[in-house]
Every structure is written in structure tokens, then in C-alpha cells.
């Protein structure tokens, strides 16, 4: 799968396929690769890019509100997820977080209770080229929690996160990390309270991103809404 771009437009296609747009038709060569410039029959140029993490976020099929890249960056940065790590995840949703973690080389087992969402996540993981790294299981993590152990990182985006956090010390290796995402303050407080009972280095953060307006007059923070996305709790076994 490659990404064809023209200005702000982006299209996902397989090499060898045809792209039809109001700018003309592009016959994509079977050997098309990143950096190539392809012309439509009307002479408009499209550039070929290789899919990367942000592209996956923009083009995955959605099943709800996925975790934003800035939250994912914090999860990866704060827990140090790296190649060879074993990650247990719950609340797969679209599969964006699982795919990002798979792209850095982690071996991810992720649980999604909704069968339809789980199937979409599998398709997204395949689109992201990380199907070998990410296993999507249909079901509730709390049903299997007694059979799981030895994970380097535990990531949660579920309403029942406190129930899993209470068993985090059984799921994680010594020194392993916990990361829990929630859009609500009340849920975040509950996770913190439970984590403090058995884990260390517990802390909660709000993720906010503020864009800058840059024009000929100068540069200043945007007057638009501040980009709040949610709350993250981190802890260590």
C-alpha cells in the first residue's frame, strides 16, 4: 500500500491500481515507490509516499474516537516501549495505539470486546503492515487476566481499567510500566487510587497541545480552542 498526495489530498492505493480523480486518472505502476512522481492524463502531478504512523492514523477505518498521536507519543515515550517488548493492551478500538506500538517493534496482544470493532482493527493492523506484531483478540481482558503474565507494558483505554490495574502487578514483569488513558477526570482519579495500592511512581497528566499561528505579521499562539484530548496515568511495577 502506498500514499498518493497532491497538495492536501491523500489517497491510499496498491501499486498497479488506477486512481480516478477530478484531476485526472493516474495509472500506478506495479513498481511505484516512495519519491516517484506520477502524472494524471490531464498532467497533474501526484507524489508517492511510504505510509508512516501519522498516515495510518488519518486513513484507518474509525470505530469511535481513537487515541490521538500526541497521547500515543506520551505512552511510548513515558514507558520506553521498544523492539522486543511484550505489550498487553485493552480497548483496541480502531487499533491505532496497537499499530503504533507494533511499528516500533513491540509484540502486542490487544483485547477488544466488540466483535465488529475487533475485525476492523485486524484490517487496520494489516493495512499498517504490523499484523505479525499485533494480535487482536475478541473478548474481555478481565476474563483472561488470570492466565496472562510477563508483559513489559500494560496499556488500557477501557471503562473497567481500575479492575485490571488492581491486577497489574501480576501482569507486568518487575519494573514494567502501566499506561491508562481516559477522557474523564473521575475515571482518572479512580485509576490513580487503585494504582497507588500496588504500584509505584504513580502520576497523572493531562494532554494538551496548542498550535501556533504563523503569518507575515508574526507568530503567536492560536486563538482557537486549546487541544485537550484526555488524561493519562502512568505507574510502574
From TrEMBL:
The keyword Endoplasmic reticulum does not apply. SUPFAM superfamilies: S-adenosyl-L-methionine-dependent methyltransferases. Its EC number is 2.1.1.219. It is an enzyme of class 2 (transferase). It comes from the Archaea. PROSITE patterns: SAM_TRM61 (PS51620). GO terms for cellular component: tRNA (m1A) methyltransferase complex. Keywords: Methyltransferase, S-adenosyl-L-methionine, Transferase, tRNA processing. Residues 70-216 form the tRNA (adenine(58)-N(1))-methyltransferase catalytic subunit TRM61 C-terminal domain. InterPro entries: SAM-dependent_MTases_sf, TRM61_C, tRNA_MeTrfase_Gcd14. CDD domains: AdoMet_MTases. GO terms for molecular function: tRNA (adenine(57)-N1)/(adenine(58)-N1)-methyltransferase activity; tRNA (adenine(58)-N1)-methyltransferase activity. GO terms for biological process: tRNA methylation. This is tRNA (Adenine(57)-N(1)/adenine(58)-N(1))-methyltransferase TrmI. The gene is trmI.
Amino acid at each position: 500500500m502506498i500514499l498518493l498526495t497532491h497538495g492536501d489530498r491523500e489517497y491510499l492505493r496498491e501499486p498497479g491500481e488506477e486512481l480516478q480523480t477530478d484531476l485526472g486518472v493516474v495509472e500506478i505502476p506495479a513498481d511505484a515507490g516512495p519519491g516517484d512522481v506520477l502524472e494524471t492524463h490531464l498532467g497533474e502531478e501526484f507524489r508517492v509516499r511510504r505510509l508512516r504512523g501519522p498516515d495510518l492514523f488519518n486513513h484507518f477505518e474509525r470505530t469511535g474516537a481513537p487515541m490521538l498521536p500526541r497521547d500515543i507519543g506520551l505512552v511510548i515515550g513515558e514507558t520506553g516501549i521498544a523492539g522486543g517488548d511484550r505489550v498487553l493492551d485493552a480497548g483496541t478500538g480502531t487499533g491505532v495505539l496497537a499499530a503504533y506500538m507494533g511499528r516500533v517493534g513491540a509484540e502486542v496482544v490487544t483485547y477488544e470486546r466488540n466483535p465488529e470493532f475487533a475485525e476492523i482493527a485486524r484490517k487496520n493492523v494489516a493495512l499498517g503492515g504490523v499484523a505479525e506484531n499485533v494480535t487482536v483478540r475478541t473478548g474481555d481482558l478481565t476474563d483472561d487476566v488470570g492466565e496472562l503474565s510477563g508483559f513489559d507494558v500494560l496499556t488500557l483505554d477501557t471503562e473497567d481499567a481500575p479492575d485490571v490495574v488492581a491486577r497489574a502487578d501480576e501482569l507486568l514483569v518487575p519494573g514494567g510500566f502501566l499506561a491508562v488513558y481516559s477522557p474523564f477526570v473521575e475515571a482518572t482519579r479512580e485509576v490513580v487510587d487503585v494504582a497507588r495500592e500496588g504500584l509505584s511512581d504513580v502520576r497523572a497528566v493531562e494532554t494538551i497541545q496548542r498550535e501556533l499561528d504563523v503569518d507575515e505579521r508574526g507568530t503567536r499562539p492560536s486563538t482557537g480552542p486549546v487541544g485537550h484530548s484526555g488524561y493519562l496515568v502512568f505507574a510502574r511495577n
